[in-house]
Amino acid sequence: MRLRFTKMHGAGNDFVVLDATGAPLALSREQIRRLGDRRFGVGADQILVIERSTTPGVDFRYRIFNNTGDEVEQCGNGSRCFVRYVVDHGLTDKTTIRVETVNNLLELSLAADGRVRVDMNRPVFDLARVPFDASGLTPRLVNGFELWPLADAGVEVAVLSMGNPHAVMRVADVDAAPVAAVGPRVESHARFPRRVNAGFLQVLSRSEVKLRVYERDAGETLACGTGACAAVVAGIRLGWLDRRVEVHARGGDLLIEWPDDSASVLMTGPAVTVFEGEIEL
Ligand SMILES: N[C@@H](CCC[C@H](N)C(=O)O)C(=O)O
């Protein structure tokens, strides 16, 4: 099978984007892994498959696969690349686009400066929906928000979902943080039955942070959009941050806003096409 693809990135978090709007595309787990493989395939953190939606009022559906082949619920940087793709390929002339993922409905728009702004919906704190098993654990309350001690991983985490699961840890110096050692231990911690994305947050000021994320399946990526949203929301709830925060990831910057506790989280950032090509799968 010969497949056309577009390679894109959002702040260095990279994607293989596949267009299934004209004809259905059924890929095996092995084929998805090949696409994501940096030596034997194209190479990407995630593979995005764009389809037309059959839901009234919704323009597209997009499916997200980690480069291990697992389908996941949400991808912030990928959602911005999705918009760039459908606009650049003439699949829509709308400037505000509604797209459904496996468990969410997002509204996205192109900003005048070429960046993309995404309504990432409201964060979820219900532990059962993250999911996180807190049985027998006592949280440390900071401003009424819980920090959960994961004794066997040696860390304390804020737990929430942005459609996908996140555990956020505050560190003094993110460049010195033991992301490669602690990230996998948190990612696969038994209290997260679907595993988790592990964020390492350094607060620079009330409106500026540095962030590294060890992503579920993909390992440390150069940026994680949902991770940035989760880290800022946790930082606001814990009283460390204001409601509009510049997030510096290793691959670029994202602006995250959470206007109030009942509002959606807004993410603004870049979406870039790197190249297009064909691969024999
Ligand atoms: N890179 C993403 C998140 C991709 C999915 C994540 N690895 C998961 O398994 O939940 C982003 O920008 O949000």
What report would you give on this structure?
With 281 residues, the chain is of the alpha+beta class. The protein has four helices and 19 strands. It has a 19-stranded mixed beta sheet that branches. Strand 4 and strand 5 form a beta hairpin. It is globular and about 50 Å long. The termini are close together. The model has no long low-confidence stretch (mean pLDDT 97). Bound molecules: the ligand N[C@@H](CCC[C@H](N)C(=O)O)C(=O)O. It holds the Pfam family DAP_epimerase. This is Diaminopimelate epimerase. Catalyzes the stereoinversion of LL-2,6-diaminopimelate (L,L-DAP) to meso-diaminopimelate (meso-DAP), a precursor of L-lysine and an essential component of the bacterial peptidoglycan. It is an enzyme of class 5 (isomerase). It is found in: Cytoplasm.
Concise overview:
The chain is α+β, with helices and mostly antiparallel strands. The protein contains four helices and 19 strands.
